[in-house]
Structures are given as C-alpha cells and as structure tokens.
C-alpha cells in the first residue's frame, strides 16, 4: 500500500490503512520524541497521543505537505503542551506544603496468574507480562475483562482514540513477542 492510498483509505475509517500508517511512521515519531524528551516512556506516550490526534483529525490533513512532517508537527505541539502543563503543575505544587506520595508498581504475579493451569493461556499471560504495564492494562481490559473502547476510555481516563492506538500498538508488540518464542 502506498502512503497516499493509505491516507485516502484512512480518511474513510479503514482500519488496515490506520495500521499501515502507524507501522510506517511509528519509529520516526518515536525517535523524534525520544530525542526531545530523553525518556522512553514519555516519548512513547507522546507518540501514542500523536497518532491518536492524527487519526482523529485525518480529514484536516493537507496532502500538499508530507504526512511525516504533519505527524512530527502534531507530536511537537503535544510535547510543548505537556511541558506547559508540567510547569503549571510544578508551580502549583510548590505553593502547597502537603506531603507527596509515590505509588509503587507491584510486578509480582497476581493470584489469577497462579490459578491458571492451561498451558496456552499461561504462556500467553507470560508473554503479556513482557509488555510495559500500560500495554498490559489495555490488553487486560479489552480481552480479559471484555470492555468496550468507551469503557476502557472511561477506566483509563483517556480519549477513545488514545485507547485504540495503545491497543493497536500493544497487539503489535505482543505479536512480536509471541513470534520470537
């Protein structure tokens, strides 16, 4: 599939076209953000938000410009907005004298993991555990708890498009893990 064809199909809500565009440009946008943020998690979050926003606003894309340039511009603007928000939060919290708490993520296996005896499901769960926690959560909510995109969006307090992009990325990473083993 050519990029122009994919964009045209994406404007008609073709999921295969969205997948193609995501696969084609993910590394470019991620690398751009990794250079800016110097943090893998932030770069990944911003990249997810970039594709979410791009897919949501794909009708506004002007094909006089390169699609990659359009994505990078969206990505840059998201990063700028996040930096502004962080500065605002830092200013607000510096005025407060409240104690700060940090949540520690527990990586230990859950009781459900211990109960599962079926080989294929146990292997799949082990492969899912290799994903980053936010990808594990979205896979769990969608395929194990069988929530709709809307319900996942409410659970994670994120826009539906972010959920779709995260799920798409999680499935791609999980497929790569499964094919390696």
TrEMBL record:
Sorted UniProt keywords: Sigma factor, Transcription, Transcription regulation
The RNA polymerase sigma factor 70 region 4 type domain, residue ranges: 125-174
InterPro entries hit by this protein: RNA_pol_sigma-70-like, RNA_pol_sigma-70_dom, RNA_pol_sigma70_r2, RNA_pol_sigma70_r4_t2, RNA_pol_sigma_r2, RNA_pol_sigma_r3/r4-like, WH-like_DNA-bd_sf
Gene3D superfamilies: 1.10.1740.10, Winged helix-like DNA-binding domain superfamily/Winged helix DNA-binding domain
Pfam family, one: Sigma70_r2
Domain RNA polymerase sigma-70 region, first and last residues per copy: 27-88
Source taxon at top rank: Bacteria
NCBIfam families noted in UniProt: sigma70-ECF
Protein family (similarity comment): Belongs to the sigma-70 factor family. ECF subfamily.
Name of the protein in question: Sigma-70 family RNA polymerase sigma factor
């Amino acid at each position: 599939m050519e990029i122009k064809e994919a964009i045209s199909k994406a404007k008609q809500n073709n999921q295969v076209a969205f997948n193609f565009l995501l696969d084609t440009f993910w590394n470019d946008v991620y690398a751009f953000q990794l250079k800016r943020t110097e943090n893998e998690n932030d770069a990944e979050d911003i990249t997810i938000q970039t594709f979410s926003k791009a897919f949501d606003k794909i009708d506004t894309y002007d094909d006089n410009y390169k699609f990659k340039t359009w994505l990078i511009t969206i990505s840059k603007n998201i990063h700028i907005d996040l930096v502004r928000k962080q500065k605002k939060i830092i200013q607000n919290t510096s005025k407060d004298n409240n104690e700060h708490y940090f949540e520690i993520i527990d990586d230990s296996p859950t009781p459900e993991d211990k109960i599962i005896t079926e080989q294929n499901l146990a292997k799949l769960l082990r492969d899912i555990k290799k994903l980053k926690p936010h990808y594990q959560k979205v896979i769990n909510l969608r395929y194990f708890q069988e929530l709709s995109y809307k319900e996942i969006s409410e659970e994670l307090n994120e826009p539906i498009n972010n959920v779709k992009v995260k799920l798409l990325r999680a499935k791609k990473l999980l497929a790569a893990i499964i094919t390696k083993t």
